[in-house]
């Protein structure tokens, strides 16, 4: 099963609410996304939608990412995908491995 997809984060919608258990104010962050996918019958498709951002990804900067998903069951017993991780891609993406000291010396020179 394919669990990784190219996603462009272009904005956020923030929905404030009060936690029923603690009474504390909290917020839901929905990432406004553009997804490009291939459809066998229709060809390339551009899809615009929202992703619920988990707490560990809530401060992700806007940009292009490879998004990882897992299958999950929600409170109403509906089966769907849940975002688990985002890996930055493109020119501004951090390196997948830390630079060695020799590479850093070359950049400094």
Dominant shape: globular
Which structural class best describes the helix and strand composition? mainly beta
Query: Count of helices?
Result: 1
Look up the CATH topology: OB fold (Dihydrolipoamide Acetyltransferase, E2P)
Number of strands: 5
CATH architecture: Beta Barrel
Helix content: under 10%
The CATH H-level homologous superfamily: Nucleic acid-binding proteins
User: What sequence of helices (H) and strands (E) makes up the elements?
Assistant: EEEEEH
User: What spatial order of strands do you see in the largest sheet?
Assistant: 3-2-1-4-5
Distance between the termini: 46 Å
Largest sheet entry: 5 strands, antiparallel
How many domains is the backbone divided into? Answer: 1
Which range does the strand content fall in? over 45%
Residue windows where pLDDT falls under 50 for at least 5 positions: 95-109
Give the rounded overall mean pLDDT: 82
Rg value = 18 Å
What does this structure look like?
With 109 residues, this protein is mainly beta. It has one domain: Beta Barrel (OB fold (Dihydrolipoamide Acetyltransferase, E2P)). It has one helix and five strands; from the N terminus they run E-E-E-E-E-H. A hairpin with a 3-residue loop joins strand 2 (25-39) and strand 3 (43-52). The N and C termini lie far apart (46 Å).
Walk me through the topology.
Layout: E1 4-18, E2 25-39, E3 43-52, E4 63-73, E5 79-88, H1 101-108
Antiparallel strand pairs: 1-2, 1-4, 2-3, 4-5
């Amino acid at each position: 099963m394919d669990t990784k997809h190219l996603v462009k984060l272009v904005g956020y919608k923030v929905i404030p609410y009060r936690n029923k258990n603690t009474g504390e104010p909290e917020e839901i962050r929905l990432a406004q996304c553009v997804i490009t996918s291939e459809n066998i019958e229709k060809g390339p498709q551009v899809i615009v939608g929202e992703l619920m951002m988990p707490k560990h990804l809530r401060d992700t900067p806007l940009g292009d990412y490879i998004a990882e998903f897992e299958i999950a069951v929600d409170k109403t017993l509906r089966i769907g995908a849940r975002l688990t991780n985002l890996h930055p891609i493109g020119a501004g993406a951090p390196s997948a491995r830390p630079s060695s000291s020799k590479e850093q010396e070359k950049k400094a020179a």
